[in-house]
Amino acid sequence: MFRLALTMLINERGKYLGIIAALSFTALMMAQQPAIFLGMLSRATALIDDIPSVDLWVMDPNVQYSDDSKPLQDAQLYRVKGIAGVEWAVPFFSGSIQARLPDGNFRNCIFYGIDDATFIGGPAKMVEGRITDLRLSDGVIVDAVSARGVLAQTATGEQRAPLGVGSTMELNDLRASIVGLHGGAPNVQSQPIIYTTYNRVKFFKSSDRKLLSFILVKLQPGVDAAKVVHDIRRYTGLAAYTKAEFSAMSSNYFLFRTGIFLNFGTSALISFLIGGSIAAQTFYNFTLDHLRYFGVLKAMGASSRLLFAMIALQMLSAGAIGFGVGIGVVTFFGVVVQGNTIAFNLNYWIVGGAAFAILLLSLGTAVLSSRPVRRLEPAAVFRG
């Protein structure tokens, strides 16, 4: 009987392919939109995650997320160093700067300044060159993706030779020499990321009066982090957060203070409703077209439970194929955009959620489509 059910479904080639196409679209959008959203959310905390050696982030109390820079006076660094329990504290600059490329084109870039002596806060992964080369005159480190991508494009979008070690650019009309390429994670804005030393930031941004964005703190072994945080807030008036707290605060800002979550959630929901409606309507029409066959089986003694199992098998098999096609397309999309400006993070939770959504859709459609079969009187088939 179950083989007969699958044969009935496959023989209706047009409706069969239509159901699979609708379910594939649904699975694709249910996985792609959350994967892009999760990728963007991970970029919101990329700066924090790339500096694992830091225990506390100290900043202006009004800072809301990692890219929200509200500069402090340099004297605050020494006040934080004097707090009991602090092993070391280093400055960190986070801001933006306009870069002028060799062809005269301008690009807005994210600009980070790290401690001159220890290079704490620098990129965790170097693709070319060494981080210590920042000691060279006018040295900066650029992210490798942008050096081969947007920084290697003309104003008209044409590709030219990528930037590399030895290339030069201008930052605020001052010469900067590229001494390395890093492989750090892109930021939410997908802008080029440039690193240099903190003191050199003062050279490139000499017009800015205050440049200290964050103070990165390492605690002494065995010290209670909560007590040090309390002391920093009490004696300096600054905000201090552990790495986990600052990461959560940045994530929550993008979740609840921007429209990113609402936009992606609405898109996924609409895709589910549209794709699911098309698949359900197509399968319902398929069931109505084959109502006479179900009537014959019912007249031959097939129970309503058996007929429902046949209908459920038809829809679940189509759902499994549609899910496989949709996730396959999403996975291929992720491989293509990996390392590019599009944020993408497909994990097992997203795949499992998409599978659960397709399962619910398939079972709900089977229940709906089985209603005419349950109400069917076998005699009506023979009278027709």
Automatic annotation (TrEMBL):
<dbReference type="Pfam" id="PF02687">
    <property type="entry name" value="FtsX"/>
</dbReference>
<keyword id="KW-0472">Membrane</keyword>
<feature type="transmembrane region" description="Helical">
    <location>
        <begin position="348"/>
        <end position="368"/>
    </location>
</feature>
<feature type="transmembrane region" description="Helical">
    <location>
        <begin position="260"/>
        <end position="286"/>
    </location>
</feature>
<dbReference type="Pfam" id="PF12704">
    <property type="entry name" value="MacB_PCD"/>
</dbReference>
<dbReference type="GO" id="GO:0005886">
    <property type="term" value="C:plasma membrane"/>
</dbReference>
<keyword id="KW-1003">Cell membrane</keyword>
<protein>
    <submittedName>
        <fullName>Putative ABC transport system permease protein</fullName>
    </submittedName>
</protein>
<dbReference type="InterPro" id="IPR025857">
    <property type="entry name" value="MacB_PCD"/>
</dbReference>
<keyword id="KW-1133">Transmembrane helix</keyword>
<dbReference type="InterPro" id="IPR051125">
    <property type="entry name" value="ABC-4/HrtB_transporter"/>
</dbReference>
<feature type="domain" description="ABC3 transporter permease C-terminal">
    <location>
        <begin position="268"/>
        <end position="378"/>
    </location>
</feature>
<feature type="domain" description="MacB-like periplasmic core">
    <location>
        <begin position="36"/>
        <end position="234"/>
    </location>
</feature>
<keyword id="KW-0813">Transport</keyword>
<feature type="transmembrane region" description="Helical">
    <location>
        <begin position="306"/>
        <end position="336"/>
    </location>
</feature>
<keyword id="KW-0812">Transmembrane</keyword>
<dbReference type="InterPro" id="IPR003838">
    <property type="entry name" value="ABC3_permease_C"/>
</dbReference>
